[in-house]
Amino acid sequence: MNNINIAAPTMGKEEKEAVLAVLDSGQIAQGAVTKKFEERFAAYCGIKFAVATTSGTTALQAALMAHGIGAGDEVITSAFTFIATANTILGTGAKPVFADIDETTFNLDPQLVAAKITPRTKAIMPVHLYGLPCDMAALNALAQKHNLVIIEDAAQAVGAEIDGRKAGAFGTGCFSFYATKNLTTAEGGMITTNDATLAQKLQMIRQHGMRQRYLHETLGFNFRMTDIQAAIGVAQLDKLEAMTAKRIANANFFSKELSATVRVPVVPPGYRHVYHQYTIRVRGDRDQIVEQLKERGIGAGIYYPIPIHQQPFYWQMGFRDTLPVSEMLAKQVISLPVHPALSQADLERIIREVRALCST
Ligand SMILES: *Cc1c(COP(=O)(O)O)cnc(C)c1O
Question: 150, 191 in Cβ contact below 8 A?
């Protein structure tokens, strides 16, 4: 029996031809194709500007820098996320402040965020975990009231929506195009904004603080995407809606078939979940269930087994938060393969095995 992997990049003839065209053009570093990818990505998101970077991590880093966040500042975010979310905050010299999440959506609970606001708070960094947007009406209202910046970690949420408005359009949006993400350029990232001044700052941060060659006006680094990656990105963008529709169809089928056995994802009305991960909650011995799924050829994943405040490095720094919901969910979640390359037979096999292992 074949193995069903947790992720499978969809690379076809279009991506290959686009890469070869760039290689033949002689212009392989950041150039016209990157610009085209940025314009197309911004249009897709319904946002004015997009700035491409080397990764989701550097997108977050550049966004924090562009908003002037640094030593003495606090940024409120989730601990139930990939480490990059909090590490990029630390990297600026600011302090990540963890708020707990809602157990049905896995996303920041706005009331708990409100309780963490201090005079040092500069920003909120909502993470649209697994591809479901956070409660942005509530978070945007908080930000407005307390004059805070919103930097969305939309790494998992390209194409996700609330009432037709795309993730990345509720603040400064940061995306990742890592190999497993819904849209991939192997490695890559993007920042979205409607603010022309901020977009220009981001372009400078990406390029050693340069607007004019060898005139350095601000701190910057090399966060440039290559045209090779951007070519893959443009081809992927053409397929994104079809790939996302398949993810959603796969997820809906799982939810229909599995809701009697395990707790399935919840999608609030008006939200478009793009299922970067399809994550269930189980009652039994989660680690054992994941092992058994793997033995049966199903590449289940745990995102994330240890919340950030309990990571050794954060513990060493003195983080001692108690985040009961994050801590509980870290012990219950299993993500099942939901990617667009799955066949109907794959889906049925996954359902069969989950039912067999999780029925009590
Ligand atoms: C993938 C991811 C990142 C980091 O993106 P990279 O491209 O891997 O640097 C940040 N936050 C979240 C939630 C992610 O899933």
Answer: no
